[in-house]
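Shift notes (night). Ran L,D-TPase catalytic domain-containing protein while the centrifuge was going.
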Amino acid sequence: MHRTRPAPALAVLSISICLLAGCSTGPADTNDRAKAPSSAARATATPRIHLNAADGQSDVSVRRGGRVTVEAGRITKVSLVTANGRVVRGKLSPDKKTWAPDAALDHGTAHRLTVVAAHEDGREDTKRIAFTTLAETDRFTGTFTPDNGATVGVGMPVSFTFDKAITDKKAVESAIEVSSSGKQPVVGHWFGAQRLDFRPQNYWKAHSTVTVRIGLDGVKGAQGAYGEQSRTIRFTVGRSQVSTVDASAHRMTVVRDGRTVKTVPITAGAKNSPTWNGRMVISEKLISTRMNGATVGFAGEYDIPDVPHAMRLSTSGTFIHGNYWGADSVFGRSNISHGCVGLNDARGGGDPGQDGAWFYDHSLVGDVVVVKNSDDKTIAPDNGLNGWNMPWNQWKAGSAL
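Came back to this:
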């Protein structure tokens, strides 16, 4: 018996091959195919909504949490409402690509966020999430020095003190970038769990600019401790001034930009209360201050309410300051202080011709005062802003990165 059906099967096979090969039946088919968007094109055209929080997240940044960004489309609707129904108002950018609240969100507050975005051909994307902002008690803050816009001496480190102990030091340190226009590599060093200083290997280059970018917003520094700071600060390094105090010779030599500008007679710490040796950075300038021996272990030995031209060299109470109560004969001849470096001065500090007034007027916070030939040991690197007393390899070893 003969079978007559192979021919239709061949026809079906031919059609299948044609479809797989993308065969064309003529110019009209080519034009239609060019007009029809591919699946890849359609995927690209769908708006993509980017949020700064995840659904259910409970530690969202109060500054970034409500912000919305859209790619391949424009924002058509944003609704940000707290759990009690309060509407959070915000602004849409002119290109309708971003939306942000008018102010930082409240801490520890639940929010509902709905965003609708559309492509130019009408396709839409919608996202809805619920989140809670970071609680007040779950944040950490870093106070820092120097201030934005300051002009400082060449020895000034960038120093952060955090109000909570940091356990993830790598995360925190990597969120702070310090750079210099002088192209000096800058490295951080941790002094314990709450202090982080940055400096180059050698003093900053004179007249350079240092930029500090703080990107701690949302960074988890420890359990229950998230950062919120996000800003950039810049400060200027002034001329180079390094003053060397020779305690045994009772003299201080002031060198500015490599040139000796003045030699000043001084009095340093007495034999039973010597001045620290080492490189110390002026961290504070006070036109007048009270010095009470009770605050530094010398109770009852002195209490002077109006010490003029005082500049702090250590946290523990070492200053270089004007001295009006000592006889003129002690300056340049003997050491009589309780550890400070004293310069001849007038009571009230009103005589600009006195050495104390001159040095105060010609010093910056961040200038370096080096003490040598004293009977005491070298000051600890974390006693004030005095990390320059630590070898560079040891300094780098204290970085978490």
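Residues 241-386 form a domain with the L,D-transpeptidase catalytic domain-like fold (CATH 2.40.440.10). The chain has three domains: 45-134, 138-238, 241-386.
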